[in-house]
Amino acid sequence: MIKEKMYEKVQLFKRRGYSRSEISSDLEINPKTVAKYYAMDGRKFKAYQREHMFRDRVFEEYEKDILEVYQMNEFSKLNMSAVYDYLEEKYGTLLGNEQTLRNYIGYLITTDKLRLKEKIRLYTKVPELPFGGQMQLNFGQHRCRSGFNSIYLLLSSQPVAISTSFSRTIPSGPRRLSLIY
Length: 181
Known about the structure:
181 residues, alpha+beta, 7 helices, extended
């Protein structure tokens, strides 16, 4: 993957007088990558980037099928291994691996050949309710030393005020119910 930020970091270290091996160890990247970026100037890097952006792609021949799979799933985000398995079942052994497919689908998204439907989650503020009008319920699990699991519910509510001839407050707090299995 050709990343402009990595190229810029290598050039920055080069201007500061670092050697290739020092850059490689400091940035924790392959020495061959450092050597390649170290020797390039800005024009050469842009040409190199353009050249590799439009190189032959292993999964290009499966583009129609990939887009069809996404269309069948209403362009929602899919697990890459599922798409890979589908192609593998349909065509047998593939030339690339799952990471190559992930990169190719990223390329399809970048070039707008594939647009995934964004999952919009709506969150709204819950209106403030009077005391006793709302409750929180939490589930949990705890493994006992004996090897049994204890499943519990934690219930918590706001104190409830009851109006009669006098006002009193019913104590409230967490309630724990345990089931052992």
